[in-house]
Write a structure and sequence with these properties.
Layout: E1 5-9, H1 13-24, E2 32-35, H2 39-49, E3 52-54, E4 64-69, H3 76-87, E5 91-94, H4 101-108, E6 113-117, E7 127-133, H5 139-149, E8 153-157, H6 163-172, H7 174-191, H8 196-216, H9 221-227, H10 234-244, H11 247-269
Helix pairs in contact: 6-11, 7-8
Length: 271
């Protein structure tokens, strides 16, 4: 991909994460085409990554082998028509929530579409993105997409486009769930007498360490949990309280609610 032009329609946070990763991995800034209506954002992209950003679609888009759609879902219908005539021959990669493949095919004229659902840790290279490719996408093009995401974290391919609703609910929205529990632990720590700095360091260290242990261990999370839960001990008391409050069931329902909302957004924006 380093010798091929890549176009970004939209230059916001996720596009910036992908652009920054590509440049760091050796992609020439001159080979990156960005369409971004915000002057301030165009200047930031130029200063930070050395890429030239245009305020609107230009014939230069036709140079792109890969087009990354990174506008807000509600802006796609407005953003697509000026670009369509220039991008029909390119592979289309969407990082937009809710915009389905059929809508991208209809808007661009290209049958080769990959949808993705990244998450915000991509901004620091620790993201995970769910990917779905239409049958017309070749194995080589799948690898090209993986190279685009590689600097920002991991990728997981799903078999059916509808599975992206579950990906959205799980990992797309997932960082907010983690931040929510971090908030609660910090609040509890301060109520128990620790100061704000102590609470933050202990909480963030616990999340980072437990996550890394779960990643490295061949054991499932249930076994890891049981190993630190002695009956009658402090961890047992905490987990028993959570079970009595129905926390796990409520959490599962919350993720399912996010999945339903992802489908609703697809019904609203993605047709």
């Amino acid at each position: 991909m380093s010798t091929s032009s890549i176009a970004f329609i939209g230059g916001g946070n996720m596009a910036s994460a992908l652009i920054g990763g590509l440049v760091q991995a050796g992609q020439s800034p001159q080979s990156l085409i960005v369409v971004e209506p915000s002057e301030a954002q165009r200047e930031r992209l130029a200063q930070q990554f050395g890429v030239r950003a245009d305020a609107e679609a230009t014939p230069r888009l036709a140079e792109a082998r890969l087009v990354v759609w990174a506008v807000k879902p509600q802006s796609f219908r407005e953003a697509a028509p000026p670009c369509a005539a220039h991008v029909q021959r390119a592979l289309q990669l969407s990082v937009m929530a809710g915009i389905r493949c059929d809508a991208i095919v209809a808007a661009t004229g290209s049958q080769r579409v990959v949808r993705s659902m990244p998450n915000t840790p991509a901004l620091i290279g620790l993201g995970v993105a769910g990917l779905y490719a239409r049958p017309q996408v070749s194995d080589e093009e799948r690898r090209d997409v993986e190279r685009v995401f590689a600097p920002t974290g991991r990728t997981v391919w799903v078999r059916d486009e509808a599975d992206l609703d579950a990906v959205t609910a799980l990992s797309g929205s997932g960082p907010a769930y983690v931040f929510y529990f971090i908030e609660a632990m910090i609040e509890a720590a301060q109520e128990m007498g620790l100061d704000a700095q102590q609470a933050r360091e202990l909480t963030l260290g616990t999340f980072a360490g437990a996550t890394e242990l779960a990643r490295r261990s061949p054991e499932p999370p249930q076994v890891l949990r049981e190993r630190v839960t002695s009956k009658g001990g402090t961890t047992y008391a905490a987990l028993t309280s959570m079970e009595q409050d129905g926390l796990k069931a409520a959490f599962v329902r919350a993720i399912q609610a996010a999945q339903r909302r992802a489908k609703e957004l697809g019904d609203e924006f993605g047709r």
